[in-house]
């Protein structure tokens, strides 16, 4: 049996109301209600040995036992079952097929990870499963990005068919992990930046399949849309996606938290530069970024987090300090 705290730290400020559970705290943040302190989460990849239990154990150690974070984010380290960088020809896109949920390790091992975590954490800690978007999976499958875009231009009907198949598989997989006990998904977009493609092309080969996949998350209350990229994000193109939380590299790619708050009423997630002080120090800058994020958002509808994964080799002393910082922030 793995040890679990599942509760959170005592709030040092005696003037605050009674301490919330992690789930209560995050739910309140999502709804825009008062919180006892800012919810906090950060992450990197664990690269376990390829089983749901190993992934659950790594998740529990990091998010619960080591750092006492408010969300257990299951990382995407059990990949989509199609060989990476294997699509060389247009006909290779026809190899994408519907996945049998009962026979695919992609389904069963991810569901097992959620089951194990829910058994250990109970219902006082939210669990979300990281899922890459259909376009992201297609880009990973292509031999290179140039090959993908060439095929999309030469044989759009074939590429669209593959994207539709991936989207349906992801919709079923998302529905499966939520049924297993996850509270939602961390749905990571790739390609939603004009540094990679024009907005019109993303509306054709990205958005429709994102929305199909996200239909599987309809029963989740903590669905996070992560707009991945380090510049020129198509931020305004995804604001209407059916999710409760928006995540992006606000300090690297923009828009700022303050600018985003003017664009959407959804809960925002960010505040720390993933390649800045959070992964390199110094402590003063980790605190300064957290205080600035609090000032930008007013502490409502906000989850303090990294903009994207910190490097796997990050010195944990910076992460420990980041977690301690949250208890020093005054949320009115």
Please give a quick description of this structure.
With 332 residues, the protein is an alpha/beta fold. The chain is 41% helix and 11% strand.
Indicate the topology.
Blueprint: H1 22-31, E1 40-41, H2 52-66, E2 72-74, H3 105-121, E3 127-132, H4 134-141, H5 145-154, H6 156-179, E4 184-189, H7 199-205, H8 207-214, E5 224-227, E6 245-248, H9 257-263, E7 267-272, H10 277-280, H11 283-297, E8 302-306, H12 316-326
Parallel strand pairs: 1-8, 2-3, 3-4, 4-5, 5-6, 6-7, 7-8
Helix pairs in contact: 2-3, 3-6, 4-6, 5-6, 6-8, 11-12
Q: What fraction of the residues are assigned to beta strands by DSSP?
A: 5-15%
Question: Count of DSSP E strands?
Answer: 8
Through-space gap between termini? 39 Å
SSE succession: HEHEHEHHHEHHEEHEHHEH
Which regions are unreliable across 5 or more consecutive residues at pLDDT < 50?
A: 1-16
Number of structural domains: 1
State the secondary-structure class.
Answer: alpha/beta
Rg over alpha carbons:
19 Å
Biggest sheet features:
8 strands, parallel
Q: Please identify the top-level CATH class.
A: Alpha Beta
């Amino acid at each position: 049996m793995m040890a679990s705290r599942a509760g959170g730290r005592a709030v040092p400020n005696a003037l605050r109301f009674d301490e919330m559970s992690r789930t209560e705290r995050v739910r309140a943040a999502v709804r825009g209600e008062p919180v006892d302190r800012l919810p906090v989460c950060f992450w990197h990849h664990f690269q376990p040995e390829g089983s749901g239990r190993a992934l659950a154990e790594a998740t529990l150690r990091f998010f619960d036992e080591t750092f006492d974070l408010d969300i257990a984010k299951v990382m995407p380290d059990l990949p989509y079952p199609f060989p990476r960088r294997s699509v060389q020809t247009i006909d290779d896109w026809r190899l994408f097929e519907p996945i049998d949920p009962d026979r695919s390790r992609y389904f069963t091992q991810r569901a097992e990870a959620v089951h194990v975590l829910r058994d250990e954490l109970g219902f006082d800690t939210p669990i979300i499963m990281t899922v890459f978007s259909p376009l992201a999976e297609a880009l990973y499958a292509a031999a290179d990005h140039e090959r993908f875009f060439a095929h999309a231009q030469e044989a759009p009907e074939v590429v669209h068919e593959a994207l539709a198949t991936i989207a349906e598989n992801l919709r079923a997989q998302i529905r499966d992990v939520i049924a297993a006990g996850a509270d939602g998904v961390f749905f990571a977009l790739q390609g939603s930046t004009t540094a990679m493609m024009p907005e019109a092309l993303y509306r054709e080969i990205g958005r429709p399949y994102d929305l199909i996949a996200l239909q599987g998350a309809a029963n989740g209350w903590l669905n996070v849309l992560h707009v991945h990229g380090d510049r020129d994000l198509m931020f305004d193109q995804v604001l209407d996606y059916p999710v409760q939380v928006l995540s992006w590299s606000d300090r690297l790619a923009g828009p700022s938290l303050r600018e985003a708050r003017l664009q959407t009423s959804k809960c925002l997630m960010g505040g720390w530069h993933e390649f800045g002080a959070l992964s390199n120090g110094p402590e003063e800058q980790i605190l300064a970024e957290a205080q600035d994020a609090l000032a930008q958002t007013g502490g409502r509808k906000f989850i303090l987090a990294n903009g994207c994964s910190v490097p796997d080799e990050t010195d944990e002393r910076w992460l420990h300090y980041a977690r301690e910082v949250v208890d020093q922030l005054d949320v009115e």
